[in-house]
TrEMBL record:
<dbReference type="InterPro" id="IPR048048">
    <property type="entry name" value="BldC-like"/>
</dbReference>
<dbReference type="InterPro" id="IPR041657">
    <property type="entry name" value="HTH_17"/>
</dbReference>
<dbReference type="InterPro" id="IPR010093">
    <property type="entry name" value="SinI_DNA-bd"/>
</dbReference>
<protein>
    <submittedName>
        <fullName>Developmental transcriptional regulator BldC</fullName>
    </submittedName>
</protein>
<dbReference type="Pfam" id="PF12728">
    <property type="entry name" value="HTH_17"/>
</dbReference>
<dbReference type="InterPro" id="IPR009061">
    <property type="entry name" value="DNA-bd_dom_put_sf"/>
</dbReference>
<dbReference type="InterPro" id="IPR000551">
    <property type="entry name" value="MerR-type_HTH_dom"/>
</dbReference>
<feature type="domain" description="HTH merR-type">
    <location>
        <begin position="11"/>
        <end position="68"/>
    </location>
</feature>
């Protein structure tokens, strides 16, 4: 197994991150501005987020309990 380099790490769009957290994409942008997520800017100026960082943040968020 080879270690992933930052260049080969999958990047997610704000919409993809928003879907994972079930929030609006604007919320993801606010999180990046607040320093909760590190964003990478594309040449066109769009934000992208490292998948490993997003999944780590997702794992640290308490999940709502299912009532049943």
């Amino acid at each position: 197994m080879s270690a992933r380099t930052p260049e080969s790490e999958p990047l997610l769009t704000p919409a993809e991150v928003a879907t994972m957290f079930r929030v609006d994409p604007k919320t993801v942008t606010r999180w990046a501005k607040a320093g909760k997520l590190t964003s990478i800017r594309t040449l066109g100026g769009h934000r992208r987020y490292r998948e490993t960082e997003v999944r780590a943040l997702l794992g640290s968020v308490p999940q709502p309990r299912a009532e049943g």
